[in-house]
Amino acid sequence: MEAQYGGTPAVPAAKVTVPDIVAAKHAGRKITMMTAYDAAFAKLVEASGIDIILVGDSLGMVVLGHPTTVPVTMEDMIRHAAAVARGAKRPLLVGDLPFGSYQASTADALRNAARFLKEAGMDAVKLEGGREVVETVRALVDSGIAVMGHVGLTPQRVAQLGGFKVQAKTSRAARRLIDDAIALEEAGAFSVVLESVPAPVAELVSERLRIPTIGIGAGPGCDGQVLVLHDVLGLFGEFKPKFAKRYADLGPVIVDALKQFDAEVRDGRFPDAEHSFPMKESERLSLEESLKPRKVG
Ligand code: KIV
Fold first, then answer.
1. Nearest of 67, 76, 139, 69 to residue 102 by alpha carbon
2. Measured distance CA(59)–CA(258) in Å, rounded
3. Cα–Cα distance for residue pair 227/53, rounded to 1 Å
4. Is the CB of 216 under 6 A from ligand 1?
5. Could you tell me if the CB of 96 is within 6 A of ligand 1?
6. Closest CA to 36 of 23, 48, 24
7. Pocket test for ligand 1, best of 61, 99, 226 (most atoms within 8 A of CB)
């Protein structure tokens, strides 16, 4: 394959579709999803062969520096989702509806979900919640918008939940979660994210649904897995959830590169001839001549 960017290989052109994701469950093929927030990283995620890019509202924490996802706005999401769509074509692209963009009315939800498709090139949207959002999910699906659900730890409710805590730990709470996931499937969602729930609960949900479950902190029994890109690459040091496996530790690599730049500029080693533009000697001499002080009188 031909090198595309930064040494990464070009990827096959076949676009991943919503039916492909549903079919993967029935074929027993695991689904992979990764977050991305800009064109450069979207290109790298695409080169890895991952099925789905989620432009998550985790944007607020790992990129915009907020303590939670709650302050993220629709404008933030559209700007970053559009950048992701410019960077990656093959993966299924899912835009995460931020807090306040779909709860007040189905009209809000339809308008904001449509913005993801029309202005940001997303293929589908995700929203958080169980039975309380099924009417919204149904309205979106009826309007032709593919919807991914999200139950368990729903970070937009972090204050109500009392922090980023494991959910559905009791049989009663687990039963509610299973019913929520079934309600989302019945409303037309094409997949459901299960976040921070005990592995046996996620396995039971996955067995009961015809649509795929995509787990994060939900054990191996899900039909697919998602992680936050900055956790995977070691680019987010504020806190590390137990479930977030770090596949690379790029933070120190980046700091080291920046330290080298800092030192080389300070001691005059950068920029050198290799990184500077030369000028024809005749042009330089002519310029110097033109700058010589003119004789007065
Ligand atoms: O915002 C996000 O990145 C998410 C994933 C954690 C599923 O919702």
1. 139
2. 24
3. 10
4. yes
5. yes
6. 48
7. 226
The distance from CA 24 to its chain's CA centroid, rounded to whole angstroms, is 21
pLDDT in tens, 53-78: 999 999 999 999 999 999 999 999 99
- Kind of pairing between the strands at 92-96 and 52-55: parallel
Q: Tell me: pLDDT of 2 over 50.
A: no
Active site members = 195
**Ligand 1 touching residue 149 (CB < 6 A):** no
Structure tokens at 72: 């993220």
What is the Cα–Cα distance from 259 to 296, expressed in whole angstroms? 51
- Quick check: 277 and 271 in contact, CB under 8 A? no
Q: Cis peptide leading into 12, omega within 30 of 0?
A: no
Q: CA–CA separation, 224 vs 25, rounded Å? A: 8
Q: How many helices (H) and strands (E) does the chain have?
A: 12, 10
pLDDT at 8: 57
Q: Are 100 and 69 contacting, i.e. CB atoms less than 8 angstroms apart?
A: no
Q: How many Å lie between the centroid of ligand 1 and the Cα of residue 105?
A: 22
